[in-house]
Amino acid sequence: MWRTRSLAGSDEAVTKSSETGKNIDFTWGVRIPMRDGVQLNATVYKPKGGAPTPVIFTLTPYIADSYHPRAYYFAQHGYAFALVDCRGRGNSQGEFESGVNEGRDGSDVVEWLAAQPWCDGSVTMWGGSYGGCDQWLTLKEFPPHLKTIVPAAAAHWGLDFPFFKNIFYPYNMQWLTFTSGRTPNANLFQESGFWIEKFRELYLNHRPFKELDQLVGNTTTSFHTWLQHPTPDAYWDQIALSPKDYDRIDIPILTITGHYDGDQPGAMHYYRQHMRSASPARDRHYLIIGPWDHAGTRTPNKEFGGLEFGEACMLDLNKLHQEWYDWTLKDGPKPEFLKQRVAYYLAGAEEWKYADSLDAISNMTRRLYLNSTNGFANDVFHSGALEETPPAEAQPDSYIYDPLDVRPAELEREEAKNYITDQRYALNLFGNGLVYQSAPFDANTEITGYLKLVVWIMLDVPDTDFQATICEILPDGTSIELTADLLRARYRDSLRVEKLVTPGEISCYEFSGFRFFSRRIAKGSRLRLLISSPNSIYLQKNYNSGGVVADESGKDARTAHVTLYHDGDHLSYLELPLVKAA
Fold first, then answer.
1. Residues 6+ positions from 410 with CB-CB distance below 8 Å
2. CA nearest 531: which of 450, 468, 439?
3. CA neighbor of 575 nearest in space, from 492, 455, 454
């Protein structure tokens, strides 16, 4: 099941301090002037008395009080901390336009803070998700007194939010309502039953995606502006860093993300773009990839979505942030955890491993070729195969995707939010999908990095969507999701330029947007590949007509007959990045 992305970043999981707070000075309602005259509101926490200190700040649309535990912690550990409401949110002036003003405003906040008598001239930032994105957008302005950033789970506009691979999420309206007006709206945001029923209503009645705001009852947002830009075009480019921006970066950075972080694509895009740049600070950019979901990138949890990891995953990220700030701002020692520039968690072995770069992790690849017997691969008991040897001749496999079929909605009620399932999930594709399984692994095998899937497909409609999910199947049949990717057929060659499918033509589709993961596949386990057309309440539905997807409804629906080829002329394969012990 595809997971929705989240820009939300509440701090409810942080344990409140048991200390008395007697060593903290607190100032509410601090006004910070922006270059256009708008004033942002800040709540400032400072160590009591003493010399000026570096200042940490968070620029947030979620209202300053949400991050009180973080500010309280750092103020008790030698740093002033300013919680700043984004323009138009909380007690800040102006109008909130998500993503539009944060870079300039963040830069103005940096320079204002640096000029305060309680600041020693060094300013840094803290935050994840939207707050992680804000750090990159602030850096884009290159304020002189910004000395380091620590972006966690940093969303990237036009890449993983408000769509991924140009496929929107109904979750967008949940988030937009959360950030509507000036109030927190947290209770409404967290009313999951309400949102699930609204998503189901859109799905079951086959209404156009563009009507979701009316259905929810909030037409005050930028929802339709986003829908007018369904590809990473100039609208989204203006919010992103350019190649020249990456070249100019000259401060240390610590990036944090997780195997199951919905904003991992954004976090890793920033990191990889910086690594490809001419920046003199590339060797001062550190990366941590833990076995965490989105929230876990700030407050790790051993258990989520049915998964359980070892005690080693429970990093004290407050402490690690403090050590990073001490190192980069106070000439303290380098954090002991950062043994090399990349730290990644090997699930299954339940240990941290290290490398000098992402490219240095995997030292070999293995291709598993898709195959089947007599062109049948439609369930786990009669699945296709993932084989070491490419097939010379083979009948193609096929499935049917009917966008008017609403049976998957009931299955989603049972499986929502789970990353660990049993055989029932693959047994309930309702004819919409193909299953390929490897032979049992004959030894424990580390897979770390990015998978690549290449398949040859023929359609009889001008467009449809695809989802590819990779799981480890334990000997007892338990399925553990490892990574997943989406692809809209019209964007098979470019995410920026659509090219509708010519029905009856066999085309190559490359899935290259899988999340990074690291897992030791146990001896006796198999890999399972599921390929289907997503039919979910949690994703914008493609009715396959080839028109504007946001405008399509049930009356436009066309049933897609999908044929997947895997013969000698059309080699379809899954490529694995392996780590072989020296």
1. none
2. 468
3. 454
Cβ-based neighbour number of residue 16 at 10 Å: 10
Q: CA-CA distance, 141 to 134, in Å (whole number)?
A: 11
pTM attached to this predicted model? 0.95
What does each C-alpha distance from 11 to 18, 85, 102 come to in angstroms? 16, 15, 21
pLDDT in tens, 180-194: 999 999 999 999 999
The SS3 call for residue 80 is: strand
> Quick one: average pLDDT of 333-344?
98
Backbone angles phi, psi at 436, to 5 degrees: -130, 135
- Cβ contact 552:384 at 8 Å: no
Closest CA to 422 of 369, 481, 366, 367: 481
DSSP notation for 88-129? TSTT--S---TTTSHHHHHHHHHHHHHTSTTEEEEEEE-EET
Q: Give CA–CA dist 526/482, Å, rounded.
A: 12
* Distance between CA atoms of residues 247 and 488, nearest Å: 32
The CA distance from 49 to 37, in Å, is 31
Are 291 and 330 spatial neighbours (Cβ–Cβ below 8 Å)?
A: no
Please give the C-alpha separations between residue 109 and each of 59, 97, 112, 141, 232, in angstroms, as whole numbers.
9, 18, 5, 12, 28
Residue 457 identity (one-letter amino acid)? I
**Distances from the Cα of 488 to the Cαs of 163, 196, 265, 303, in angstroms?**
12, 24, 17, 32
Q: Which two tokens stand for residue 296?
A: 């876990």
Cβ contacts of residue 392 below 8 Å, gap of 6+? Answer: 567, 568
pLDDT-derived band of residue 419, with 50, 70 and 90 as boundaries?
Answer: confident
The three-state (H, E, C) secondary structure of 30-68, written as one string: EEEECCCCCEEEEEEEEECCCCCEEEEEEEECCCHHHHH
The DSSP letter of residue 492 is S
Residue reference for tokens 């334990």: 474
SS3 at position 484: strand
- How far apart, in Å, are the Cα atoms of 82 and each of 47, 58, 97, 126, 136? 12, 7, 21, 10, 18
Rg (CA), the chain: 24
The Cα 282–Cα 111 span in angstroms is 24
Query: Would you state the structure tokens that stand for residue 45, as one six-digit string?
Result: 């926490």
Query: CA–CA separation, 371 vs 367, rounded Å?
Result: 13
- DSSP letter string, 527-559: EEEEEE----TTSPPP-SSSS-GGG--GGG---
**DSSP 8-state code for residue 564:** E
- With 0-12 CB in 10 A as exposed, 13-18 as middle and 19+ as buried, what is 442? exposed
Whole-angstrom Cα distance, residue 50 to residue 274?
Answer: 38
Name the token pair of 92.
Answer: 């800040």
- Report the C-alpha gap between 33 and 125 in whole angstroms: 18
Question: Is 456 within 8 Å of 544 (Cβ atoms)?
Answer: no
Average pLDDT, the chain: 94
Parallel, antiparallel, or unpaired: how do β-strands 506-511 and 163-164 relate? unpaired
pLDDT of 18 > 50? The answer is no
Both tokens of 139, joined, read 């850096």
Longest dimension (CA), the chain: 78
